[in-house]
């Protein structure tokens, strides 16, 4: 096989490999579209029913049936890009329902958790425990004030969520509730973690005075000792001088 023939063979083999890959990916995507269509139809009658109006539900069910018919007919010969586009269109209608379900199912528990933490930090802000005695009173009071502010928000949020029809988007998301939780912790915790001042070191003045007094005593003692050593040698010198004078008189 010549070099040119080998290149042609190699090119055709790569083309066939790519074609096989596209066929496999297209079949997998078609299966995903079929599965999503069947699952969503079932869920609209079940767990997602509360999150869509009856009229919107009927229209969605009708479109899902149309999609199923297309899959078993034209869908077999459809290109990968066409199938993907149809799947994305269905998900664009189904995902908001799933998101509403998540928000309404979890928001109540998130609000309750926030209220528990509010109560915890309110108690800490009003605490008379000795370990918080070094913290500025105004800062501790600011924790209580923040708790009151967030408690009002949590109460109003719970009422708002409860009064909103579930086929509408949740008025407050779980992420927003979590953000309030973080706001509380980030505000209160640094205040509560304020380190107590270190105890003052013992005064050194008395120790220094004692050392100076001791040094003075040592100095005085040394002077007295030196004086005692020099005084006895003075008398013999005087006696010797007197003897010399007497000898001179005899001469």
In a few lines, what is going on in this structure?
The chain is mainly α. The chain is 78% helix and 0% strand.
Account of the protein in words:
The protein has 251 residues and is mainly alpha-helical. The chain folds into two domains: 3-96, Up-down Bundle (Substrate Binding Domain Of Dnak, Chain:A, Domain 2); 101-192, no CATH class. The protein has seven helices and no strands. The protein has helices spanning 3-45, 54-71, 80-125, 137-163, 174-192, 205-230, 234-250. It is elongated and about 130 Å long. Residues 97-124 form a coiled coil.
Secondary structure layout plus pairing:
Blueprint: H1 3-45, H2 54-71, H3 80-125, H4 137-163, H5 174-192, H6 205-230, H7 234-250
What overall geometry do the principal axes of the alpha carbons give?
elongated
Report the biggest beta sheet as strand number plus sense, adding barrel if it closes.
none
What is the chain-wise order of helices and strands?
HHHHHHH
How far the N terminus sits from the C terminus, by CA atoms, comes to: 153 Å
Q: What portion of residues is helical?
A: over 70%
Average pLDDT score: 86
Number of helices: 7
State the secondary-structure class.
Answer: mainly alpha
- Rg for CA atoms: 48 Å
CATH architectural label of the largest domain: Up-down Bundle
Please mark out the parts with pLDDT under 50 across 5 or more consecutive residues, or reply none.
Answer: none
What fold name stands as the CATH topology of the largest domain? Answer: Substrate Binding Domain Of Dnak, Chain:A, Domain 2
